[in-house]
Each structure stands twice: as structure tokens, then as C-alpha cells.
Amino acid sequence: MMAGGGFAQAASPVRAAYLDRPPQDEVIYFVLPDRFANGDPVNDRGGLAGDRLKTGFDPADKGFYHGGDLAGLTARLDYIQGLGATTIWLGPIFRNKPVQGPPGQESAGYHGYWITDFTEVDPHFGTKAQLKALVDAAHARGIKVYLDIVANHTADVIQYRDCPTAGCDYRSKADYPFVRKGGVAGAAINDGFLGDQADRQTARNFARLTRPDFAYEPFVPKDEATAKAPAWLNDPIWYHNRGNSRFTGESSTYGDFSGLDDLATENPRVVQGFIDIYGRWIDDFGIDGYRIDTARHVNPEFWRAFVPAMQARARAKGIPNFHIFGEVAETEPGMLARFTRVDGYPAVLDFAFQGAVADVVNGKVGTDVLAHLFAQDALYEGGATAALQLPTFLGNHDMGRIGHFVRAAHPDASDEEVARRVVLAHALLMFTRGVPVLYYGDEQGLAGEGGDKDSRQDMFATRVAAYAAGRLVDGGSAAGDHFRTDGTLYRSISAMARLRTAEPALRRGRQVVRAAGDTPGLFAVSRMTKAGEVLVAFNTGLTPITAQVEVDATSRAWRSAHGSCAAAATAPGSYRVEIGPLDYTICVSEVGQ
After folding, report:
1. Is 293 marked active-site?
2. What's the pLDDT tens digit per position in 547-590?
3. 258 burial type by CB count under 10 A (0-12 exposed, 13-18 middle, 19+ buried)
């Protein structure tokens, strides 16, 4: 470890090949460290003493730490690499407030989103040295590592003296302006402050904002006066202090997210502070990308400063393909695209894809829903080419797992049908445009009973009774550990990942929708490159399909990459496909053959 907390980088005479992979080449494995593998039981309580309300550790409760850590992840890199993942996206690993919540409703920060110290690894997960060991071991295998980061809020530390017992409702800028204490008729404070609109977000203007009690009277409990790091984060002046968000209007960016302390990201000091914080993690660990939490709850001006600063920091570190994508929980492509055009994000998580694929695979809608989705790729900054970098996914730690969605939509279906629909969903994820994100445990058939805590199961043998009592996608028991590599889902996804790696068109090819309909059934896309065309055809229905699909007129000779493929086009520009129920085919043509 170097002076100042950095880590020395071993000199390498050969440039690591993984650095040259563009974001669209990746297969991302998203994992919550606490729920994956326990490599070091000594850190289970995070170095804290006392009961679970002090340490946060209770492996029998869904809402507390279970013991997974960075050492466990490092020990399981063979498993992740065997699945075909090329990037690991870690849930936040920064030091969290161990436990928070009202009496009787407490839970722990096992998920990582209640950060107090942005400069340290949470001791429940290990140490900076263990993070460095994980990143280095991953890089040695050609696997990238992305960190999940937060700039919208910190843990809930700041309290309000005049908060009603029913809760701290949001107090707007109109009713409680920055220059009055207690409302428009209150006493004058912050004399000369001209507000925080985009053209006034200057250090000179914010120097006039000296008091944080314009809406509520914030205070920091004495025993938490120095809980946050860097130290400047302990001063309420750097927060909005307007009460709980209603998740509409201005409260979406100025309100506390379920009580979490909402940072004043319009303030230049806060902007520079977070550029410094997250730039340092790139410098010290060679991180390859950032997934940014709660992106929609931060003002665009912050992101237009922060994102280029992170890209520049990564380039200076020799990381030219640093992937940045924001979490915007929105299923309308136009709203998602707004964050690439207005906020300057290179990419956002494609929630629209998730909703469309889940409905299509479950037969709730026709395959034309996917055609409509992809037609809107033009809305993103950079158009369809930029859409290749959108991380796509089937479920996550908030909404739930694809196995749950399928089973809920088909409660009377056989386990075989449920499993086939889940495999088909993964094929749509892997072979249509975008960067596929695999949610840890889906490859083992974990399904759960819903979202949030119900979708955050342990990969190691769980002590949570509800997790152990669950059923896997194939009908098996969810008890025991889940690291088998011979199961149907693991083998199917691994084969898909290998095929995606082997065929550049499936990663980088321009996508052309070839066939879609208003009922469950055929959906086909071509992935086009100068080298040729790859036709991917899916059947979301329960009966076999035989159909003619338009292809490029120069695509004459074909070979099978998956499923049954005719050796030649039926006629120039027309190709015959045959697909079984809930199945797919991938046929490869070389231009001019």
C-alpha cells in the first residue's frame, strides 16, 4: 500500500487484452457480495460487538448481513468465469451504516446503499487489500470489475428537530425558499443567495448559502457527528434537508429517498467532492466501470460534470473503455433516452427491455412489442449504435427474478415449461442488442417470491427459512448451496455466452428486426456486420413455427450456430426457419458465399 492509501500497480510489459474490449463485448454478472460466498467468517460482524442491531449480522433474517464477502467472491472466480461472464458488477462495497430504521423495523446495510464512508470498504465485506486482490485476480483472467456507486444520498444520519411525528413530509422551494427560515414569511437567512438553478451553480453564489435550516432544522446526533467520510459530508449544509421525497416533481431530486440524507448535488463543492471520491477508486484499484444508483434523482448538471471527469480519470489510468451506466427505473424508452441526451450518460440500464422481454416470454403480448421497443433506439444520444452499450437485464435485486415472473404468469405450468421460458428469456437477453446483465443466482434457477429482500437469496447454504423453503425454476429445492455447474440453466447460459463471444455480430452487429407479430410466436432479428449476417429467430409460442424470413440478398450460404438451420437461402433475400416451441435458432451467413 502506497502513502496516502493507494496501491502500487505491478508493471506489465504487455498490455492486458481485456482493456481493449468495448462495453458491448461484455457479459456482466451482477452480484450482491453479502449473498454470494463467505470466504472469511471472521468479518461476518464487521468488527463490531453486540447483538444484530449493533453488528447488522443475522444470517437467518432476510434484512441483515449473511456473511458473504470479497474473499468469497475471489475464491469463486472459476465459477463466474465458467458461466461465461466477462465482467463482475459488485453491489456497493463502501462502508455502510450497519443498521437503520424505526424501532421494531430495523434492517441492515447488507445491500450497500446506506453509505457513511465513501473512502473505505465495508468491514463486513473485507478490506481494501482484499478488494485489490479480487480486482487483480479478475483482471488476470481477463474479467473486468464494475463498482456500484451512489451520489444521490448517504445513510440516514441527519435528523430534523421540527419533524412531525407522522414523518418529515417534503417542503418545496416555493413554500420554503432558501432565503427564509420556516417558510416564505419567516426570518431572512442566506442573504444574497440567488437559488440553485443551472446558471447559478457557482462557488460564488453558493458561498452565500451558509445556513441549512430553510425548510427543516437539521441536526446530526452527537454519537454520529463524525460518522461520515470524507469529513465534509458530516455538515448538513451539503444536503437538501427538505424532508422525504414524494418521488414526483422537484421532490424527486430534492427529497430524502425514504429518509436517506439527500445530497445538494447542485453545489460545486459536492460535485468536486464526488469527483474526488470516485476518481480515487479508479486510481487505486483500476476499476473498469461504474453503475450509478438512483441516477434520476440527481440534477443533470451534476452528471454533465461527473461523467466526463470519470472518463478522463479512467483514460489517465489507461482504461479507455470505462463503462458508465445509470439506474433510471423507467420503462418508457423516451424517458430513458432523455438521460443520455440531457444528463450526458453514455448508457442507462434498459428497464424498457426488461419489461418487454418479460411480457413477451410469458406470452402476455405479441412479439411486435419487441419490434416497437427496438425501433425507439434512435432516441438515444448516438442512436442505434449507442444502444449497443445499454445494459439489458431480466430482473434484479429490487424488482425480482425472471424465474418468479414466469412462474407468477404461469402458475399451472409444468416445471419444464417454466424452465424453457426462462432459458428463452436468457436467449433474448444474450443475442439481441445491448450488454447482457446476469443477476447472480438466476443461472442456478433461484426464483424467489417477489422483489427486494425476496430476490436477494444466498448462493451459499442459507439459514433464512423462507429462502430454503423456496423452489428452483426446475422445481428443485432451494436449500443448500448453489454452485453447481452441471445444471440446465448454468450450462445453457454458459453456452450462450461462449457463442456470443465467438460471433462478433452478436456483440457489435447492427440489429435489424426481420419478423414480429401481434401474438406470441415468431420474432427474428439479423445482426449485421461487414463480415456477414447472423439471423436469430425466437419462438415465444407453444407450437412449432415454419416461416420464410427476409434476409440480406447476399446471404446465400448458411451454417448453424444453434438449432436447425438450412444450408442455403430459399431465394435471394428469403430464408426458411424452423423453430420448436419456446426455442430459438441462430444461423450464420457470410456475405457473398
Report:
1. yes
2. 999 999 999 999 999 999 999 999 999 999 999 999 999 999 98
3. exposed
